[in-house]
Specification:
With about 200 residues, the chain is an alpha+beta fold. The chain is built from six helices and eleven strands. The strands form two sheets. Strands 4-7-8-9-10-11 form a six-stranded mixed β-sheet. The two termini are about 30 Å apart.
Length: about 200
């Protein structure tokens, strides 16, 4: 049942709570950040005068966490060094952009990265600010979008994102296979079954 819900999920605005305020300046964006404090919600996305305030649903949060955990399993099984940064606040005042990914990662052993190598976004509810425009201004090289049961890869090529079939940072990862394990009754079961599938017989 859950598999069908994920595959055929209709991302109309019903679950995540999204409000977009227009005519907002950078100081308004910073004030909302200060008012939120150390909490991870609501998530704030800012693009040149548009401020999106989003409170993710339980389904959204569960799904983004499961994707992240399975990515980590793949990295551990394949010997890829990684560091998770969750909903790291990324912003660039001179470009008037800022956002917080659902999940993000830096690969290798960089101690103080300026930006993630990979950001993951779950499109559970449509609408809101154009995130690829923000990621482009921030220079994040690779974005994955989950939508309606499918994960797509968008790689920054020059000053534009292109949808590609293979990850630059995790070459060989099969995202069709990974997505098949997102519907398990628990995250721990998804992790165990996915790890087993990755282990050579």
């Amino acid at each position: 049942m859950l598999a069908r819900q994920l595959k055929h999920h209709d991302d109309t605005p019903v679950e995540d709570k999204i409000v977009v305020l227009r005519g907002m300046n950078w100081a308004d964006y910073e004030r909302h950040q200060e008012a939120r404090g150390e909490s991870s919600v609501p998530r704030l996305t800012y693009l040149q005068g548009e401020l999106e305030i989003m409170t993710p649903s339980r389904s959204h949060e569960s799904l983004k966490s499961r994707i992240g955990r399975l990515v980590e399993v793949w990295c551990l099984e394949r010997g890829v060094e990684f560091s998770p940064y969750g909903s790291w606040t990324l912003q660039k005042k001179e470009e008037q952009v800022g956002l917080e990914p659902d999940e993000c990662y830096v690969f290798g052993t960089t101690q103080e990265p300026e930006r993630p190598d990979l950001a993951i976004e779950v499109v559970w509810t449509s609408g809101g600010v154009r995130k690829l425009d923000i990621y482009r201004a921030l220079g994040v090289p690779e974005i994955w979008f989950w939508r309606r049961g499918r994960i797509t890869i968008h790689a920054l090529r020059g000053d534009q994102y292109e949808e590609v079939s293979q990850s630059t940072f995790l070459p060989g990862i099969d995202l069709v296979q990974l997505a098949e394990y997102l519907d398990r009754p628990s995250a721990s079961q998804a992790i165990k079954e996915y790890r087993s599938a990755l282990t050579p017989r």
